[in-house]
Amino acid sequence: MSSLALDRILGLRRTRRVLVSTADPAARLSLAAAPAAVPVVVEAGSARHARPNLHSVYVAPEGPAEERLAAIWCETLGIERVGRDDNFFELGGTSLLAIRMVAKVGAAFGIELPAAAVFEGPTVRSMGRLVEAKAGREGALASFAPAEGSRE
């Protein structure tokens, strides 16, 4: 943070909270207000929704680990397909869904991930790197195949 920003924050009176963002806060708020940002809870076996319009173009997951992650994200978010560069939160993910999803990922890969893993890796590509690094350290990385019946 620049000293100018810090000086402004320290000079604020009667302010309890401050938001420091590397992105345009107005753009983030508009994304949060978009219909795609509303989490969709889907019962097993029910129809999934189409991938929402995002800032990123769809790029298919690469390799077994990314394919498995994308299948978990699809299941958690109730979306037909998730690309390797799609942001979890732009897809409608919330902190509650992130916790659920991280638990599913940990179970699927046989590793323990911190709840903050989705914030460190908010795309399938970046989370795939986290999972592979963690699984490699724990010796848990064997062969990962997409879940049966996934719609990748």
Describe this structure in words.
This protein is mainly alpha-helical. It contains 6 helices and no strands. It has helices spanning 3-11, 25-33, 63-77, 95-109, 117-120, 124-138. The longest helix has 15 residues, at 63-77. The N and C termini lie far apart (40 Å). Residues 35-45 and 145-152 have low confidence and may be disordered.
Determine and state the CATH class of the largest domain: Mainly Alpha
Sheet bearing the most strands, described?
A: none
Structural class: mainly alpha
CATH superfamily of the largest domain: ACP-like
| Computed CA radius of gyration, to the nearest angstrom | 18 Å
How much helicity do the residues have?
Answer: 40-55%
Spans of at least 5 consecutive residues with low confidence:
35-45, 145-152
H/E element order: HHHHHH
Shape: globular
Averaged pLDDT:
78
CATH architecture of the largest domain: Orthogonal Bundle
Span between termini: 40 Å
The structural domain count equals 2
Number of helices: 6
Oligomer: single chain
CATH topology tier name of the largest domain: Non-ribosomal Peptide Synthetase Peptidyl Carrier Protein, Chain A
How much of the sequence lies in strands comes to under 5%
Number of distinct beta strands: 0
